[in-house]
Amino acid sequence: MRILIDATTADPGMRVFGMSLVERLLHSLRRSLLVIDEVRVVVQGESETVDPGHPVRRAVSRRKLDGLRVTWQGSTGRIAERISSALSSAPDSSWLVLSGDTIVDARLLTQVAGLEGNVYFVAGEGDERGAILRVGAGARVAPSSAGSSLPTWVESMAAEGVARPMRTDEFAGYIVNLRRELDPYLFTVHDDVARRRVERFLFWSNYKGSTDFMTKYVWPPLVWVLMRPLARWGVHPNAVTSVSIVATLAAIPLWMAGCWGTGFFLAYLMSLLDSVDGKLARLTFSYSPLGNVLDHGLDLVHPPFWYLGWAYGLSGGDTRSTVIQASVWMFGFYVADRLCALVFEARTGRSIHGYLPIDVQIRTFISRRNVNLPFFTAAVALDVIRSDASWTISTGVFFAMVIWQAVCVVYHAGRTVQFFNVVKGSAPA
115, 192, 365, 387 — which has fewest CB within 10 A? Predict the structure, then answer.
């Protein structure tokens, strides 16, 4: 497989979340297509040569492209002539042709590349219209005189009957990690208006389809404010996760000692940063195996220890108290709930929180950290205002949380049994 990026119209100074458009394409290719053997990328710049000082090449320097073989070439003339010449250099290979001034859905890269023959995908309107083209090995292309841009050249090929559009049924739109369906997208970015619109779209498209009300309604404006400068400054998401880990662990002894305010501050900081690091990783192609372990491992492990810390603080350290015993039950229910989710995804290939619309709705208020935290915070605040040394409201809310966790386990266990034998990866009926 050969990849051709026509970067002759790309503005090296145009950056989306701190990365030039060509740089984003290269990193997207690196993440998406290295599973295909013998992937080679050719980047064409508008000049006789594209040396290390060329603006387009110089704009691709912030992050390593380990494993991706890139050749830089100078090129002049009409787009069809330039692309036809590049394709003729390796006629026995299939090619994926992209424009360097576009933002391309990474799923398109793998799914279009996996098709046969000459296949294209076109999206957008007016100046934001863009295209991606797959040319099969030895396939005929449109005349070199046709087209002044990649979309128009693709249309010439379609008119000649030598290329076909990608069919809807050829695109798998479900994203397991985000628990949502998302239509394929492709944008050409020529000005700041388009850039701002694309950044907004990419930001929201990287939110999970089913999540809690804090992540869905409260945190997005703050995440948006924090993520953009972090992306521009090249801050790695693992650095954000590290701060989150410190805040997560530091909150527990504070709660146990009765320092509720500081503990809650750190807890909300962690909750906010938990949204920031994931968006930062996905939108700057900075995710890594270590980051995945740190982020998801933290999410998986810490909640029951927070609940134990809450119970210890409420009981004044009395390990024989009913609230401490309730926290142990909470620990067990939490583990059982997570196990149900793991079994469900292993059997169905989809998240238990996004399988059907009712699961998405319930996920908004399911017993999880971001749901329990604000309710418990409000209860503690009321007891502090009332000067209630016995923590009556807080203890009652804690018991209610344990009961709600038990209800969630029963519901998820029932869903796991109900869909245990469905065909893995199939769309829900």
Answer: 387
